[in-house]
Design a protein that fits this description.
Four copies of one chain form a homotetramer.
Chain A lengths: L3 E2 L4 E5 L6 E7 L9 H11 L16 E3 L3 E2 L2 E2 L4 E6 L21 H8 L15 H16 L4 E9 L8 H10 L6 E8 L13 H10 L4 E6 L10 H4 L3 E6 H4 L3 E5 L7 E2 L2 E2 L4 E7 L9 E4 L5 E4 L10 H22 L6
Amino acid sequence: MSNTFGKQFKITTFGESHGPAIGVVIDGCPAGLEISREEIQTELDRRRPGQSELVTPRDEKDQVEVLSGIFENQTLGTPICLLIRNENAQAKDYDKLKDVFRPGHADFTYQAKYGIRDYRGGGRASGRETAARVAAGAIAKKILAGVGIEITGRVVQVGKITDEKDFVKEIEAAKVDGDSVGGVVEVIARGVPVGLGEPVFDKLSAVLAHAFMSIPAVKGFEIGDGFSCVEKFGSENNDEFVDKGKGEGGKGKVVIGTKSNHAGGILGGISTGEDIVVRVAFKPTSSISKKQQTFDRDGNEAVIEVKGRHDPCVCLRAMPVGEAMMAMVLADHYLLSRMSRL
Amino acid sequence: MSNTFGKQFKITTFGESHGPAIGVVIDGCPAGLEISREEIQTELDRRRPGQSELVTPRDEKDQVEVLSGIFENQTLGTPICLLIRNENAQAKDYDKLKDVFRPGHADFTYQAKYGIRDYRGGGRASGRETAARVAAGAIAKKILAGVGIEITGRVVQVGKITDEKDFVKEIEAAKVDGDSVGGVVEVIARGVPVGLGEPVFDKLSAVLAHAFMSIPAVKGFEIGDGFSCVEKFGSENNDEFVDKGKGEGGKGKVVIGTKSNHAGGILGGISTGEDIVVRVAFKPTSSISKKQQTFDRDGNEAVIEVKGRHDPCVCLRAMPVGEAMMAMVLADHYLLSRMSRL
Amino acid sequence: MSNTFGKQFKITTFGESHGPAIGVVIDGCPAGLEISREEIQTELDRRRPGQSELVTPRDEKDQVEVLSGIFENQTLGTPICLLIRNENAQAKDYDKLKDVFRPGHADFTYQAKYGIRDYRGGGRASGRETAARVAAGAIAKKILAGVGIEITGRVVQVGKITDEKDFVKEIEAAKVDGDSVGGVVEVIARGVPVGLGEPVFDKLSAVLAHAFMSIPAVKGFEIGDGFSCVEKFGSENNDEFVDKGKGEGGKGKVVIGTKSNHAGGILGGISTGEDIVVRVAFKPTSSISKKQQTFDRDGNEAVIEVKGRHDPCVCLRAMPVGEAMMAMVLADHYLLSRMSRL
Amino acid sequence: MSNTFGKQFKITTFGESHGPAIGVVIDGCPAGLEISREEIQTELDRRRPGQSELVTPRDEKDQVEVLSGIFENQTLGTPICLLIRNENAQAKDYDKLKDVFRPGHADFTYQAKYGIRDYRGGGRASGRETAARVAAGAIAKKILAGVGIEITGRVVQVGKITDEKDFVKEIEAAKVDGDSVGGVVEVIARGVPVGLGEPVFDKLSAVLAHAFMSIPAVKGFEIGDGFSCVEKFGSENNDEFVDKGKGEGGKGKVVIGTKSNHAGGILGGISTGEDIVVRVAFKPTSSISKKQQTFDRDGNEAVIEVKGRHDPCVCLRAMPVGEAMMAMVLADHYLLSRMSRL
């Protein structure tokens, strides 16, 4: 198991979806950050299900408790533990899934790897784990806000649809049909300074790929023009350097930037100062109510229909998770960049 | 800087493209692997430039020297250092690049981050660093071969061309024009057992993304159907579980596999036993001889034409690098999987 | 901050002494270990204060809650979070310590390092943090018990006294005097197999030193004959190899062991199969009620008398902590030793 | 195997004593440090054997080669590889040791752990590995010198002798007798700022213990008054805080220090600003020419006399190694301390 992410701003999440609680320990957040429980809760509420007809109606509430590391609304430099109790866990819904491997889910692979699994609702592999990431991400975002870095995510594609106005329609159609659809989420970071990223293996682009691909259901990642840059010539794809005016409110040195931003804000694994732009592909939700062929734990063939509360498209709820991952990677690398020079 | 990759089979590369040498230290290779210097050299030769008209004619030779960790053609369990001297380094070619930032290259970002850089041919950011990866990858491949895992890479797209017969033509056209083209490389691992991958942050798919995105010029990564799965319904994309016949030569238990392999061999971050299939997008080479606008280190505008020996399409030489990264990730996770159960 | 210890069996502790809770996340415990909450509680109770006249009367109760990673009394291979709420925290006792640096304590150094500290009872630097280690240690002990490794600690010196019968007297004398005394704890591991330890930097002896020196108040560490071996000749100190009879109940191969065990069970950083014997020196408790000269946070001279509930000798309560550290190091290296050979 | 030490200033050593070379890769040294090959060589020469009658006469020369990371006498922020070729390796001397386990050495444990070992002169377990540490330590020392931290080591005990004038006599007596003696080395760091050390597991004292106990032949470690503080009362052992005059040449704020320094410069795992004082116990050299009982690899009893070039007391040559370890720990923590506050 590897439940830790980050080098300096380092998070460790824990918890199964239907156990007593999920949570996160953040080790490496510097002392002196002002942050309240409410700010963390606000971010967590953005991910909460039950906010529309299109996401699963389970009312998780998800009240976060700060167990350590924050004292009088200031970080101490000690580990911050954030806890979210699992309420409303209707474990009995899952009893019939105890022995059957749901197609597209991690049931089969967890059972094969560990010889045991918490079969209630996905256990550790459940998307619920990402609530802990969002809580930790709230702290990362606060660090970034202090240095002028802002992160925003948006859904740019649902199924074959790229026009935002039709997203709801597409998802509803799938839902009615007992089916699900995939989607693409784009996350952009603005105000990133030049110099974040640790070559050669921890290029900012590589660590972002790691972070985003660790979100359940993600099957693809690209930065800047991504896969589409393959079809261009070097002379089209290179971003020429240009004068971006003077820094520090017009009184500083000339800021060098790039005319275009095909690179998505990263060159040689290091941020250029331009916007960092990534896109991730989410597969259609694996939990569908259509009949599927599978096996049970004893090696007998079985047929499964996954009933219950499931998002027909995870993109909407995954957006804050994507933002959190971007925030944590950037906060980590912002801190790491203090080490570059003597 | 972060020049180490892997958790158990851990490599640390070092060296600038025009310094005395590049190399790699592998820490964590178990004792008792039979491997000779020649086997490593053979793999390295696959990456060597100068093998066709389409790749840079610099004759690097790249003779690998085994400095430690292998004794009488067996690994000792101690760190293995592999060294490759830099010969034929015509540093004077690069003197005029000393102060000018090449568009698409890491010159600008390294200078901004470190306040100093080895400006000769890309220095640490040069693709030459990947030779060390290929050398280490040879050892990873040998570990995998011992357990029946085989890795193969191929170029599946060059520019807009997907028909292999026309790749050469496309690259030559760009070369004549002083330009470059991008490409897509696919790497497949066969014979991977069920159970590799360390959730939740080191999902096999996430670590592979990290590994591949750390290769210079890579801008996108996908696994299985990747971005195209977005356009499918869950009922189309889920891979149903089926009977794959009996294991151990027909005498063992029924092997559960999947009818299709949209997932690319990974569920919940853990290998399913099906082929692992990844694709990576390489941008068109940044070094082109066309005129480009840029800046020098002192903040003066400049125009640059990058002359010299450069691949108009890095895909061909990057293929063995992709295979090496796949091999190292799988060898690492094969070893890590020993820790799953008591 | 670095609140994580271990490479494979990896613990991260969190919590301040007078915050809401302390706890630990264990990442890397293999699946399939049978362990109940009660077994963890039993170990924790051994450390609990209030068990005699000689240890601080604060009744902590310290009920451990298992938040994740254990399902139906079996480990899942997922992170195990153990939580202990802080009750009976009389924070007001500490208000007068808010601004004054207690000699021998970490008040001054935490304030200097972080610019902020939780001044209530030592905060993160409090010995209370070690309760989390003992809880995690219970799991490590269970792993070891399964392979026949047993750990026992004992106090071998209190002040100048080495006769166990007089320890109580010595401590009481110091207590009456408003003073404190130091002590030496010895921890022995029996049944350790040959081959644990990861040279060169993670020699078993080096990692044990790290582990024990991280316990609050420890000022010295030695293994086997330790400092006294300095005064011996090589011919006296070398442990000759001898026949220890046949293994596997007399039916296996000859077991090679050592005639003496000056080395304390470790050669070249790797366990020999003999008992591992370490001793650690605890300084006299820093909290004494005698007047001491110091400074406050604003740089004004001050005089302090530390009233309240404090152990005049930490050895007694530290013994289970020492056992826990030994257990965690050995469990970690027992797992790591799976990686030595192909 | 674990051949890496440090968190930010991270070294990885490689090489067997009688293989082609030993060396070290330093990853994490910031860019912009001025350092020449000669400065590294000078430090290495201090460790070199053959400088007196009392140390082994093997003339290693040990010329260091800088393979990467330093360009025009400045660090680049990229990994620094330092290589030392093994010359004068008379491997044939060791052929008779091929199958016999030398008492006190790692032959037996390496063979048991890895199933294979480079039997020529200790292989990886040889003290020769420490030359690589000294080379890396030269760079750490240079970083520290830039911020006014100075490190000095000295031998304070040889066998039972504590008077420096009689050390030579004691060692010679052992040598004549075909025997060896132990010793104690003290290493002091002066000018260390307040605030180095990363609680709770990477207390400066704990990491120093790890570092020093990883040096071959070390059996004990203590900081400040160490084991002797056990016999004192708290009122004697606590270091009271006092006014050390004003900082910044008398113009700054009052510097708070301690009247005594029983703690050895560390409180709660964090440096106090006082001198850091550690002492380590070296066992008598295991290689002695007296007859000793042992076993060979096939389980047959054997008698061994270790002939050849060996130091009868490793203290003298180990002193620069101790200094190097202290330097690397402090350089690492000096860099890490940049992360404490926002």
